[in-house]
Amino acid sequence: SQNSQFKQPMPNWIARPPHPLGEATRPHPWELELLAKEFVLNANTRGQRSLARWSDFSILFNQLRKLEDDIYGQNPGAQEDILHEIFRIAHREFPWQTPPNSNSLARYFRIYSSPEISRIVAAQFGIDIRTIYLVGFALITYFMSGAIVDWNSLSVPTVSQDQLDTFVRHFSKELTPLRQQIKDTQSFTTDFVYVFNPLRRWPILFHDFGEGPKLVAPVPTLLFRAFTDGIYYEVVNVPGFANSFGESFQQYVGDALHSVIPRDWHLISEQPYTVGRDEKRTIDWILVDPTANL
Prior knowledge:
Blueprint: H1 2-6, H2 29-42, H3 54-73, H4 82-93, H5 102-112, H6 115-125, H7 129-144, E1 148-150, H8 161-171, E2 172-174, H9 175-185, H10 198-201, E3 204-208, E4 213-216, H11 220-226, H12 229-235, H13 241-260, E5 266-269, E6 272-275, E7 278-281, E8 285-288
Parallel strand pairs: 2-3
Antiparallel strand pairs: 1-4, 3-4, 5-8, 6-7
């Protein structure tokens, strides 16, 4: 996952395939997400096989692909609605084609940093948006060098231990309850690859493997999404959020336009006006150049 999404070099302890993989045979990021979920659900904490060996990985990966194919083969009705399935495939795969990047990190931080949304986020998470980003980005950095972080040695500059505890409690889950969450959402119908993956809500596994508590991020991209676009889904139903989000997003769009338009263009923000006794508002932004209004 680190290799495909963050362009990190493959660690030496992970065996390479014996031959180059083509587009049809190489593991895709959305398939690695499914593999991670099934691994958390079914794997033992100790065993003889290892996903670091290509022979073991390829067997497990191919069996998972075969299971998906078999499920569809036993549900012939699913093949009749091709258009519906195309939409589902797009929603599953397209988000993974835009890996984590500084643009999305900055965009969400800018939107969430408005005073009203900051208040809502702090009330929901127990820490402010700045702390969420500091800890989230620090953990992403840790996980770039390995999938496991020692909890007792974890520290983030300018972040207190209480704040760190609050972040980890919110974005992590211990192995047994996480497995139960996966079981509760599991489906072996044609929804198999589309049901909600609890790792999207709790992208960090908190577990003691016998050497003290560890933090494990099976798919670091899911952690990145949890503290960027994932925050939206946790506060979307909070009273007052909808209007506050709309206003903050509107201001973000205006700031972005201001930064790129030529000097002889004009940007007019939303303005109130009246029609009879009714107060109306213009569209969010009007862009004016020497030839036209947009």
